[in-house]
Design goal:
Elements: E1 22-27, E2 34-41, E3 46-54, H1 66-73, E4 84-87, E5 91-97, H2 104-110, H3 115-134, E6 137-138, E7 147-149, E8 155-157, E9 164-165, E10 172-173, E11 191-192, H4 195-208, H5 214-221, H6 226-234, H7 250-259, H8 271-278, E12 287-290, E13 296-302, E14 305-312, E15 318-325, E16 330-338, H9 342-351
Antiparallel strand pairs: 1-2, 2-3, 3-5, 4-5, 6-9, 7-8, 10-11, 12-13, 13-14, 14-15, 15-16
Helix pairs in contact: 3-4, 3-8, 4-7
Amino acid sequence: MFEVVKKTELESNFDIAKLGFMTKSEIGEEGKNSKTYLVYDPQLDTELVLKKIDKKSFPDSLIYFKEARIVYSACHQNVVPVQYACQTEDHICLAMPYYKKGSLSQLLNVKTLSVGEILRYSLHILSGLHYIHYKGLVHFDIKPSNILINDANEALIADFGLTEKIDQDGLANKDVLYLKHMPPERFKVDRLSKSADIYMFGLTLYRMCTDKKTFQEQFEEVKLTHHQICQLMNEKKFPDRSAYQAHIPRKLKKIINKCLEPLPANRYKSVLGILNELSSIEDNLWWRKVPTNTGEKWIYEHNEKILELIVEYTNQERTQVLVLKGKSKKKILNETYEKSVLLDNLYKLFISADEL
């Protein structure tokens, strides 16, 4: 338990309140100037997430509660709310709901998502992001670890520590960004638009549509100078547009690639454009890739129908594809394909699942 702040730290016309928390554990990724804890709040008799931000990280005491005010002003069903904000002698504290399902990043570490799940979470994220942009803000930190999943299995945007308000030109200054999700224009200019969030969302969606290790391995490979990373981005070599999982609909890949366009002018003009196009995707909704010791494997589960599609790499030139149906795993297809035409034939099988 700790007491909030000494009276000398506040102006005399403020009432001083005492607020206590029992720290249970440290959770989440540690930020540069903050730490996040799971705490028990005896006043509300509930578990909360407490973000503690070092006061030394603020250039001015007037902006101590900037993040709290931004989150409060961006109240939306797909934005993580702030329950209250307070301060200790050394820290600013933001209390937020605790979601047992954790973050999108944690979810991607334990399972691959079906296209239906990817679309569901993406529409939630975009709904929250649209409202953030409507409020004249740029989030500047859209990434899987900042997307939380609530008890209703809905995605919510969290962590507004980098958020800025745009000026009359539609731009905001931001000198520090998460390098892995940094849009290519940031390597050249400091003033960025809402298009930076569209790029970051596109990269988040890309990570939902690739193997969990794919993006990190790519980043490690290109961990060069900023100039070299920027060059690879502008050449559309990072991230790798050929690394999508085989069941990802072509229309979805096209949407992601447009979000990741190196030039902001070539991306979607607004979040609504992405929302509309994602909402029209109907292919391959119920397939998801699952781990296997050899080859590759996908599972289809919808309306009590279960299919397994198994790819076995028999030699360097040819590949065997099996499709099993139901809990009994009845073999309904056993074909061998040349590797040069494998992806096209797999895609045909994915989109014909209802007929199998």
